[in-house]
Design brief:
Layout lengths: L8 H30 L5 H25 L6 H24 L11 H12 L2 H23 L21 H73 L8 H32 L1 H4 L3 E4 H18 L3 E6 L4 E4 L1 H17 L6 E9 L2 E8 L20 H6 L7 H11 L3 E7 L3 E9 L3 H7 L5 E2 L1
Helix pairs in contact: 1-2, 2-3, 3-4, 4-5, 4-6, 5-6, 6-7, 7-12, 9-10, 10-12
Length: 454
Amino acid sequence: MKTFEFSNLHMVIEWFIKLRWIACAGVFLTLLVFSTLIGINLPYKVLFSANFILACANFSYYLYLMKIKRKVLTDREKKSFLHIQIISDYIILLTLVYFTGYLENPLIFYLIFHIMLTSFLFSEKKLIIYTALTVFIIIGIALLQLKKILPYYPLSPQGDSCGYFDRILIRTGGITSVLIISAYLISSIKDRIDYKGKLCEVELNRYKSLDKVKSNFILQVTHELRGPLAAVMGYHEILLKGLTGEISPKSKDILIKANRRTDNLLTMIGEMIDFAYMKSEKEILCEEKRLSMHDLISENISLIRDPAQKKGIDITFNCSKNITVHANRDLMNMILGNLLTNSVKYSKRGGSVSLACSVKKDEILLIVSDEGIGIKDDELEKIFEEFYRTRTARSLEKDGTGLGLAIVQRAVNSLHGRIQVFSQLNKGTEFHIYLPLMEKHKEAADGRKIDIDN
């Protein structure tokens, strides 16, 4: 049987602490009502003291949690901390139940809840130990009460009018059997969940392997296609420049169309290569350097300048030369290249595209905006899906893979950033990319020298 993964320790302990505060408040209010309004004769000093001890213990757990958040603990230390909390919870609950009617107190069934938590936190062996000790203590206290060695604190004002001692053995057998059966059932359910989880993990790994094979296949095929297509485009250029002799206007028109289609195919193949590369070669994308945002933007604008000029689109950018980002160059080029390509492709003739880069607190904000066709509100949530293209984009430009923005989102996520999009139909679209800022003092703290990759 699997045991609890202690990487989630903080979350579990925080949950326990919140539950204890609720329990403390509930017990305090209940004791207050019983002592002032109902008038049942119970050892309230002991009960209030036990509740106070629970509150103090919970506060100490909270302080310790704040401490270990800044410290790396071993698995043994983590387990010990959890064991201390579980044991203290058992002791406090049994104490409160014992002084409030014991077996006639319905709160004793809260032990089932503790057994359930124990089963999910620890191994089957430890669950058996906790369950056995709990059953042994319950039986032991009941027998000592039956022998009049331990006093009985009835919940009713009439004392033993309900025949507590006449039914003590039946009640003891009932609660212990419920605890044992609960532990067995919870343990069995957990075994089945673990088994199903393993099956799902196997299927997921199989799916990931197939997906990686598919990505590698696409990567290989597109690489093989790009070379011949680039050569074909080169031959078109030679013919268009008249290096092989004069060509008729009709032939020139056909060559221009063929060249445009070839260029579109190369763009699509480039997107497919980027997408397959990101899915199959993640370890390469983790190599990061300190890059100048100004230089990155300038390089990508220069690559899109010709198609922008053909449409009369003016591209401007505003970025300080001092802004640098600790990132992977390929990922940054994918982000900028795809956003700029889309902005120019879907902008009207004579429009404009602008880029702005600035520092906002501990992040770099990159804004890419255009005056293009825009995106409908009901399609905004879908634009980052793989192979998705908006209806307007399909009507305007038939060729396209629908992978550009999916690549952008994957690249931004790989850089631990986030992306937002704002758009109005027929007015334009604006992308906001937030990337973590590598502060200068971090470089000094690490004691490493990082060269700026120009």
